[in-house]
Amino acid sequence: MSARAVRPRTIAVIAPLRHPIREPHAGGLEAMVWDRVRMLRARGHRVLLCAVEGSQFQEDVPAEFRLPAAVWPDEMDATDSTYPPGHLDRALPALEAALDFIRWNADTIDLVDNHSLHPQPLARADQLGVPMVTTLHTPPLPALVEAARAAVRPGRFLAVSAYTAAEWRRHGVDAMVMPNAIDSSRWHLGPGGEGLVWFGRVVPEKGVHLAVQAARLTGRTLRIAGRVGDAPYFQKHIRPFLGDGVEYLGPLSQPELAQLVGGSACALVTPLWEEPFGLVVAEALATGTPVAAFDIGGIGEVAGTASAVRLVPMGDVQALAEAAGHLANAGGGERQRRHRTRAAAIARFSLGHRAAELETVFDLAATHARPGAGAWV
């Protein structure tokens, strides 16, 4: 990616409250924020990351930007859909202190880049004296919708897909589409292989148990990589089916993931919810590995017209197995196909290409931030 910025700015990036921004990434959202901070710094911007303790890139941030970690008394109770007892009692006052710091130092901060899934930053946006750009990473969560619509001055919003933008628009929140991006220098071309791969957060809505079933039908091995985000789900629906060609590798660093995915015959993507984007599809394609996926939410947008992707109805395990088998058994010319697959993915999702677009948005927000200026979409 280029190290040249349009104009160096000071940007406060607000991360979600749950997981540190570091490798191995807790999920696609954390990976996206991690890449965002690296990209902005590489292009000459001063980035202050407000994130959970233990995050990278916080060596020179104010103490108020280090938020308390979510610690479960018993890891067997841990889920990504709830917080540990008492966590928000500590986290929300800490986030409030970070927002106060931004307000008190508004003359030295050009922009707030908000990725929080809690409505508090949106609720305070009009009071900070600093323009805020909020990326919508989720379906329209009621508390976030309420905060966005209640703002005195219309906010500036980015949505990770046209699908997500349309869902939010139905709730009265307009957003510009800014798809997630990947670092092509880290997601490198792989040689392929014989087995299948599934990677991501191990939670019920990601449907890894159906990937296990589909892999069994193909007769191919399946390697699973990712953080367990719902311990009861893993214990009941995944652990009993490990072995006999199904292996769980745990959370991996991005270089390890790229090697794993790039060394596979096909990636299985099995969301059982309205996936806002589907970063794993773009990541797999960047290694040259084809993808068999459930067609739900923003998955079809990421797939586009790529011949290396086959979409099947959500939950149809037989169709998923057939799609994966077809892609994995493609035959001769594999190296050329993998090169074409990667090239097409990089052309659409390169972090370097997205950087200039993002800087244009940030410049517009910072330059035209004045009361009553209205929203842009």
UniProtKB/TrEMBL annotation:
Gene3D superfamilies: Glycogen Phosphorylase B. The keyword Lyase does not apply. GO terms for biological process: carbohydrate derivative biosynthetic process. Residues 27-186 form the Glycosyltransferase subfamily 4-like N-terminal domain. It comes from Winogradskya consettensis. Keywords: Glycosyltransferase, Transferase. SUPFAM superfamilies: UDP-Glycosyltransferase/glycogen phosphorylase. GO terms for molecular function: glycosyltransferase activity. It comes from the Bacteria. It holds the Pfam family Glyco_transf_4. This is Glycosyl transferase family 1.
